Amino acid sequence: MSEHNDAKIMKMFADVGAVVSDSHFVYSSGRHSSVYVNKDALYLHPKVISELCQLMAQPYKAEQIDVVVGPVIGGVVLSQWVAHYLNQRRQSGETLAVFAEKGSDSVDKQFAFNRGYDKYIADKNILIVEDVLTTGGSVRQVVDLVRHHGGHVVGISALCNRGSVQPKDVGDVPIHALISLSLQTYNEDECPFCQQGVPVNTELGKGRAFIARQKNQHK
């Protein structure tokens, strides 16, 4: 796994508010932390996303990537830009960009290729892109999906690895992340911010849902 948290990349994240600290955040996993990676702040700025995706594409030989796959929603943007920069370096042919979607009903929440995209996977070299790796669970689903359709996963390229996700967590696929952050997180019952009465941030993360659930529990 490549880690190169150089000052320029960290500054790009910080300048748009993509790394926020000194607050009390609740993650989608239910764990708490004082730091939050606000990936949505990046997507507001096409120039920043473009530059970051160029860096995400750099480690790969353009002719060796047939299709870039990203999970919805952020992965759609990333797959387009990364494929764009791979195509700029290709001498012939074209790198395609597709995305995987989750089932809409309450039973099927697994990723799937819709819109006929599955036809472009078999026997192809696939690069999977993701914005933030936390547990690797979503990306592992996409890896399994690509393999199910006969594709060969060359690598995973991410904006940020905040969960120390390793190749073994994602089907033994090499990981390249622009930045890697080792964030201290806590279960609710051991969270020092909860114990100190630090207000939960309701603007970022799952703070509002956490507070709503607490209120319901105390009714």
Automatic annotation (TrEMBL):
It comes from the Bacteria. One of its GO terms (molecular function) is orotate phosphoribosyltransferase activity. It is an enzyme of class 2 (transferase). Residues 40-169 form the Phosphoribosyltransferase domain. InterPro entries: OPRT, PRTase-like, PRTase_dom. Keywords: Glycosyltransferase, Magnesium, Pyrimidine biosynthesis, Transferase. Its cofactor is Mg(2+). 5-phospho-alpha-D-ribose 1-diphosphate binds at residues 102, 130-138. GO terms for biological process: 'de novo' UMP biosynthetic process; pyrimidine nucleobase biosynthetic process. Pathway: Pyrimidine metabolism; UMP biosynthesis via de novo pathway; UMP from orotate: step 1/2. It catalyses: orotidine 5'-phosphate + diphosphate = orotate + 5-phospho-alpha-D-ribose 1-diphosphate. Orotate binds at residues 134, 162. Its EC number is 2.4.2.10. Belongs to the purine/pyrimidine phosphoribosyltransferase family. PyrE subfamily. Homodimer. Catalyzes the transfer of a ribosyl phosphate group from 5-phosphoribose 1-diphosphate to orotate, leading to the formation of orotidine monophosphate (OMP). This is Orotate phosphoribosyltransferase.
